[in-house]
Amino acid sequence: MSTPDLAAMTRDLAAMVRIPSVNPYDAAPGPGRREAEIAAWLLTAMADIGLETGREEVAPGRPNVWGRLRGAGGGPTLMLAGHTDTVGVENCDDAPFEARVEDGRLHGRGAVDMKGPLAAMLETARLAKGEALAGDLLLMFVVDEEHLMTGSLFAGGRRSAAPKADSCVVCEPTRLAAAPAHKGQSAFPITIEGVGAHSSRPELGENALVSAATLIRAIADYDAALLARPPHPLLGHGRATPVLMTGGESHSAVPAQAVLTVDRRTLPAEDAATLRAEIEAVIAGAGVKARVGAPAPEVAGLDTPEEAAILRAALAAAARVGAPAAPVAFPGGTDAPNFGCPAVICGPGDLAQAHAADEYIELAQLSAAARLYLEIARIMLKGR
Ligand SMILES: [Zn+2]
């Protein structure tokens, strides 16, 4: 019994798309923004499969849920992980929660990012029940990936009662290529200090916006210097990009302060202290009076080594089922670094359709994903 049931996955995916679970961002969860509703649906689905389930709240109304398929014993635990939240629907064409199927695609918010992958995870557990596996297969569903990643940070942290795994596949869409690496992100707010004065007498002040212009030039030079460093084999270079600026008080005042945010995309080897020191050196070099605030967001990078068992298993499984053979970089940040075990990102569908006005997933990708995940489970969970 190892043929994925596409009709069952399509039904599961449609049911999940019809449960709006838009990330509440900084507001409280409410109608249409309830990860709790899809979490409840997942608990029922996992109980129906026969998994041992668990639930824990990361914040009020925002639960992570999981299900465990026990192996015979003597093997490691493999986690398949995904997030239950989606981005908003402000840009959607129409009917983002209808789950319309047309030409082999299912359309709707969350279809590819990532309720389609969640359906493939459930199907993998159904298939794995018929296998003689030594280790445990764990399905983990977390909240809040689209905002602050509090779900995976909580699940991987010490306060969580969630089961821990020895390795992990984060099932975000990669068209089934194995992605062992992505950049991190640290967005630094920089407060530039000037001296306020009436702008009829600017010589009495020190214009924070003019200093900001000097600093922006220096950040551009810093970015060029980053591009001259040796590249990471998959990720290329770290980058520094000015992304936001506020400043000034009125049309008749020399600005006393400006705040510039620099988005620093980081390579996994760059640590927080070094990043801050580099930004401070750029400020000092520009001769600007400024202080660097705490980065927000601050997202870790991922760099799973070539010899990691989960990466080798993902590539071996890909060869067996005809999935892409070469590892790739994942373009954005994910939950993967937060679970505290070696991880690869690998899942059905194309990230190009994520967050899009017309989000969809090719249903054929779901069957291929379930086959691929089952092969990974066979390799990883066969006993030590
Ligand atoms: Zn996602």
TrEMBL record:
| Entry-linked InterPro entries | ArgE/DapE_CS, Bact_exopeptidase_dim_dom, Peptidase_M20, Peptidase_M20_dimer, Peptidase_M20A
What are the protein's GO molecular function terms? hydrolase activity; metal ion binding
Q: Which CDD domains match?
A: M20_ArgE_DapE-like (cd08659)
Q: What is this protein called?
A: M20 family metallopeptidase
Q: Which organism is it from?
A: Pikeienuella piscinae
Q: Which residues form the Peptidase M20 dimerisation domain?
A: 181-286
Give the SUPFAM superfamilies listed for this entry: Bacterial exopeptidase dimerisation domain, Zn-dependent exopeptidases
Which cofactor(s) does the record list?
Answer: Zn(2+)
Q: Which UniProt keywords apply?
A: Hydrolase, Metal-binding, Zinc
Biological classification of the source: Bacteria, Pseudomonadati, Pseudomonadota, Alphaproteobacteria, Rhodobacterales
Which one Pfam family would you cite for this protein? Peptidase_M20
